[in-house]
Design a protein that fits this description.
Blueprint lengths: L14 H17 L2 H15 L6 E6 L5 H12 L4 E7 L2 H10 L6 E5 L12 E7 L7 H14 E10 L3 H13 L4 H13 L3 H11 L3 E6 L3 E7 L1
Parallel strand pairs: 1-2, 1-4, 2-3, 4-5
Antiparallel strand pairs: 5-7, 6-7
Length: 228
């Protein structure tokens, strides 16, 4: 897929518009099935991690770090000590994420490329990447899965859209009637077109040669789960 989303080149988007679009993406993820799929599998992984210290968690392509904030809140409610490192490749997105998490002691924000993470093997207990895999070409997506497997001891979760005609139609309706940001209106339907089917996601795992499975979730969500 050669078409690029506007968020793939944030230099073309102003700070206010960038923040507004990322917030709209967060609301879609929160209310249209993305977060439940991610949290279901993350909870399973977190319960496998050691409890004698804070669980080390990696958030790849963190965006506004909303998922990290929600995960930190969940961990507090369940008395699970956690230390989250949120990474992104874009400096301007990192600045927004750092501002958004300034009050959260459990979260730190760092610049890193999910295709070549600057961390040693097993540096984290678990990791996740939410709603970002479709931004990568297939070979790059394979690298992301390999890197998550390398740095996460107990496993990882990658959640994203599932490419489907009905999901594309729904995104077109949201772009026309709900989303206000021109960035989201452009990127939303394109995100569905660029996303993977369940079969393609399974093929990515096979090509990465990692221990993983694919689960489908309603509505039109995929969860790729890496088993440590």
């Amino acid at each position: 897929m050669t078409d690029k989303e506007l968020l793939d080149d944030v230099t073309a988007v102003g700070d206010e518009e960038l923040a507004r679009s990322l917030k709209e993406v967060w609301h879609v993820n929160r209310y249209l099935g993305g977060n439940p799929a991610l949290f279901r599998h993350m909870r399973e992984l977190l319960r496998k991690a050691p409890r004698d210290r804070a669980v080390r968690v990696l958030d790849v392509a963190t965006g506004l770090a909303d998922v990290s904030l929600a995960l930190a809140a969940w961990s507090r409610r369940h008395a699970i000590p956690i230390a989250i490192t949120g990474v992104d490749i874009h400096p301007r997105i990192l600045k927004l994420a750092a501002e958004r998490t300034a009050h959260a002691e459990a979260i730190r924000i760092e610049q890193a490329d999910g295709r070549e993470l600057p961390y040693p093997d097993g540096a984290f207990d678990v990791g996740f990447c939410n709603l970002a895999l479709h931004h990568f070409e297939e070979e790059e997506a394979v690298l992301v899965l390999q890197e998550l497997s390398r740095v996460c001891r107990f496993g990882w979760v990658v959640t994203d859209l599932e490419r489907h005609p009905a999901a594309y139609a729904a995104a077109k309706l949201l772009a026309k009637f709900v989303w206000r940001s021109p960035v989201t209106r452009h990127d939303g339907p394109l995100s569905v077109r660029r996303s993977f089917t369940a079969g393609e996601a399974a093929e990515l795992i096979a090509r990465a040669n990692v221990n993983g499975t694919v689960k489908r979730h309603f509505p039109f969500r995929l969860a790729l789960i890496g088993h440590g």
